[in-house]
Automatic annotation (TrEMBL):
It is an enzyme of class 3 (hydrolase). GO terms for molecular function: NAD+ nucleosidase activity, cyclic ADP-ribose generating. SMART domains: TIR. The lineage of its organism: Eukaryota, Viridiplantae, Streptophyta, Embryophyta, Tracheophyta. This is ADP-ribosyl cyclase/cyclic ADP-ribose hydrolase. The keyword Metal-binding does not apply. The keyword Manganese does not apply. It catalyses: NAD(+) + H2O = ADP-D-ribose + nicotinamide + H(+). It holds the Pfam family TIR. Keywords: Hydrolase, NAD, Signal. PROSITE patterns: TIR (PS50104).
Amino acid sequence: MTTNNPPSTGASAALLLILLLDLSGAICPANGDRRRPRYDVFLSHRGPDGRHKFADHLDSALRRKRIKVFRDDRDLPRGEKVTEAISRAIDESVFSLLVLTPGFASSEYCLDELVQIMQSREKGRHRTFPIFKGVSPDDDVADPSSSGLYKADLDRHKLRYSYERVASWIHALDSISHIAGWEITDQM
């Protein structure tokens, strides 16, 4: 007799998200863009928050559906400048899935990716789907320099980076908080 073990809650959430993306017709070029993308999805997540957890389940579920996913820890060309490779991967993707976790704003790399993704979105070249995992778009992400989980990280960044760079991160975080996405609890 065989028993089917239910998937972990992270896997269940990832599979549900894939179903929702399929139903929304997300995997098609934005604004009738007919260029052939290299990737369907640019998966943005903070490594320590997402690896071996939700981002892994999401990546696996997307790949099982034959969706081409760019993920930096696997797909960065060796010997190439990281920022240029990431920038090109975003430009060569139909859309981005951003997994915003409590630690997301501690990473200047994640924040730089977010800025570029939001700029591409504003130009109509890129679709963006936020996943708020363990953070609230209204309480933690919107107006992040005033309150919420990201305030302390942004305060630290203000001591190290230029005003313009930090302001672009704050603007991008506030902008993404107003895009309909998915809120996933830490239990998923």
